[in-house]
Amino acid sequence: METAEKYGDAIMPGYTHLQRAQPILFAHHLLAYFGMLSRDFARFEGVYKRADIMPLGAGALAGTTFPIDREFVAKQLNFENIYTNSLDAVSDRDYILEFLSAASILMVHLSRLSEETILWCSREFSFVELDDAHCTGSSMMPQKKNPDVSELVRGKSGRVIGHLMAMLTTVKGLPLAYNKDLQEDKEGIFDAIDTVKFSLAVYAQLIRGMKVRKDVMMKAVTEDFSNATDLADYLVKKGMPFRKAHAVSGTAVHDCIAKGKYLEDMTIDEMLVFLPQLNKQCSLLSGMRDAMPKVRVSSGYSGNSAILDYQYTNYDIEEANKRYIELSDILAKAQTALDLINSTVEFEIDI
Prior knowledge:
By secondary structure, the chain is mainly α.
């Protein structure tokens, strides 16, 4: 969000198939990842909700004969729910599978961002420059500045996905109730937690330290045919069927490529070649030229609605922060209660 606001007026090529498609705001591109991370946050909230269930009293598999008050303990430990089936309580690892699934999706999102960051800071793109803190040189080639952090995060995504696959494979063939296989649940989830925490923390710093080269992005936008869709859209708005407008715009692009020019450089006479039924005085021809500026950002999303992007994003961040504080408070209370139980509680059993 901070970087999107900082470079709110930067325009870059939007891509499909890694080919330039239409101009977009750089901020709009970054906010796409905010959307992904927002869904990740919601998934982790769901994981917490479904993990908030107390297994105490399940015993080895068939419950306990001790006169425990499960509801009282659950309240003291801030659990919202209690397992209703003892077999399920001792064998359930859904909360680990869900966490690893959410963590894997999060890491996939960070891996996609890493890939784009790696491309953007290459000499072929030169859209951004990473600060030295998140890059390294080469032991052999002194001119190199390698985006090591992005590459490491991209690589670690496979590590977390591997933990998910390993846990799914462990659980898939287990009969009820407990089996020793389940001791394999610890290493993967602890490593996934460490990996996710590292990746999020380091990427927050990387994005903040990123320098966006607006001039290079602008040059890339003005030296391509990403406004061909604008030309077709203009013709459609003037009554031409889109099939024909698409063909006219495509033919114009081919002609410009052959002549070494861009659509906005076309003369009225050249336009008449593709629309012979019109004349030089036709307002449609002059309108076509106006419809093909060197830089145009679609008002459907990345133009006028960019303000709405920021508004909704700010709202989402505020709500996420509130929920994070609430969850942190609940976890802190639970930890305090556990510490108290471990240090002071003595059970009295009436035989």
